[in-house]
Amino acid sequence: MSDNARTAAVVLAAGKGTRFRSDLAKVLHRAAGRTLVGHVLEALRPLGLGQVVVVVGHQAEDVTASVQASDLPGLTTVVQEEQHGTGHAVQVAMPALADDVDRVLVLPGDTPLLTAPTLERLLAAAQGSTAAMLTARLEDPTGYGRVLRDADGNVTGIVEQRDATDAQRAIDEINAGMYVVARDHLVAALGQLDTDNDQGELYLTDVVGILAGKGEPVAAFVTSEDEVAGVNDRRQLADAAAVLRRRHLDHLMTEVGVSVADPATTHLDVDVEVGRDAVLLPGTILESGTRIGERAVVGPNSHLTACQVGNDATVHSTRATEAVIGEHASVGPFTHLRPGTRLGVKSKAGAFVETKNAQIGDGSKVPHLAYLGDATVGEQVNIACGVITVNYDGFTKSHTTIEDGAFVGCDTMLVAPVTVGSGAFVAAGSTLTDDVPADALAIARARQVNKEGWAAERRRQHGR
Ligand code: UD1
Ligand code: CA
Fold first, then answer.
1. Number of domains within the chain
2. How far does residue 6's CA lie from ligand 1's centre (Å)?
3. How many angstroms is it from 16 CA to the middle of ligand 2?
4. Buried/exposed 157-189: b ≥16 CB within 10 Å, e otherwise
5. CATH no. for residue 41?
6. Partner of 26 at 20 to 30 A CA spacing, among 14, 139, 340, 386?
């Protein structure tokens, strides 16, 4: 058979996924930050196939939008309006194939552990034969189709678990549901499918028996157990996600040089990047779009979503979303960085600090108990304990600007819009409603009054 440019993939993603008991189509459930079908598409990406046809049906619009977002070259979708089985799904896909396609790689949409090298080997195994299929020997083959072989070891067919005899169920070699078939032979065999089985469906698996019956050799490529795992329910989803996370951590530890103190409690989505000599401490969750710099220390107990963490930064017990944390910055513990936060080089956002849409310049410190929302803070600014930007009046959000080198004393309310000029000093306990000029002192609080003997007189009146 031919090269990859003349090979098309057909990905089956139309099923409902009844065993998930979900309102969401099965293939859109996520494992390690990516949809099930998305994982299959990523395994296809390095192959450079000429065409990828995804068969959608259940929640067709959402699945279509999701797979198109992958931007996989040559990807199109076809709709299988009613789902009459895997063989029916491929029948529906065939008219969408380009004229020059001469072999078809069929994949399920629910096998997120599949990798490109395994697919390469399957395609290589198909060279010179009409068809090849992927199989695996499992300790517990329950639920999978079993591979039938004759006395010489040649594949003769596949039988589904529910249609199998006890003797067939004892076979431990399972069908991964992944095949490469010469186009003309596939078309012919699809035309011979019937619904003579327990589910009354058109089974793609029967194609293998039909080809073998015609004397066409079907090569079987036996691969490792985890690559083929189909995800049919939520327990299998959790198991697959654990494998994906562990693979990614293994890659970071062995190829990049990242220390992971406790892989079991360190949950990284598959696209998260981490730099050399970074340290991930227990209880760390890093979600899609997050990038951690070299020598950074993240955790324990930090949960970052789509964040950029600079080299040498530390992020301890922190929740952060769409935040940019500068090099050598220090964050946490118990810090909440909301979208639009940018922390400069060597800056600090310490305990019980919340930020949102706030830029904090290089070397500036917010060590404890503060809320900075809709704020621009310059460089080398000191924001003392208990400072709050009063950014919302119930209708509109207003901006606070604190210029370079300013010092904002404890328990200051900055009633926005307001600007504190560079080098200015704001006295503790102030409620600022007016701008502070550069290098000025602002005191915005009532003067203290001391009444001599007042407390003693009160105690005397109460007889103490
Ligand atoms: C299938 C195989 C089984 C194999 C297993 C491997 C058949 C009959 N059985 O079983 O031999 O061991 O995969 O994981 O093929 N789909 C459609 N349209 C349909 C039906 C299904 O697009 O009409 C899609 C599903 O969304 C899914 C894939 O095909 O992504 C496989 O279907 P599923 O019902 O999960 O098949 P299994 O029972 O796992
Ligand atoms: Ca399945």
1. 2
2. 25
3. 11
4. bbbbeebbeeebeebebbbbbbbbbbbebbeeb
5. 3.90.550.10
6. 139
